[in-house]
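ingest -> validate -> predict -> emit
validate: passed (alphabet ok, no gaps, 217 aa)
predict: started
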Amino acid sequence: MALKNYKSIFKELKKSYFLSLQSVVLFLVTYIDWTLLPYITKLEGTYLPVFMISFFMLLGALDGIIQPLFKNIKIYNIYLFTIVLDIVQISSYFLISHSILIFTYIILCIFTLQAITFEIARVHTVDFMQEEEIQLKDYLILRSFMISLAIIFGSISAMLFDYLNIKLSNLLIYVGSLGIFAIFIQYKLYNKFKKKVTLNEVLIEKEKRDLSDKFRG
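emit:
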């Protein structure tokens, strides 16, 4: 049965601490965004003109075009940037009582940049798949599965919060707490990637020196 594929993928996931961390981060960030998205969409229609809504849609469509600009970027710097984005997003929650318009603009900017950043990270993660037991195809299936699961749970959460008439300020406290946990996991990923990249660079330099010494000898 095809259902056994789920078992094999998650079996491989358990073997990789790195992939487990990345899956948790992907789920949490996507879940937070899709829990907030219906509320932000409502604020868009209330406070933002069509021009600005279209502008953010335009920015979100640029990820494939700007990918070549980040071809040689180190992946740990990508995760460092996502940490900064999450900190800015959580900080923006305090604006809800001061300026709902500025809050809406900041959240839309963060959502757009997050979407672009995770697409860039997805491409660069492929470089590390050769060090993992999981196949690239299985990794991409797992990634899509986690995103879909997060969107489903995020959408259900938003409907539940709306049904219970939960205030937006209370919702922000909830997603803010999850965001702090996501930052903690992302920092772990940042350190893990940095150590991997640094170690690889050291090994490459050592191989170059050994090769150079061999020719000289």
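Residues 86 and 179 are 7 Å apart (CA to CA).
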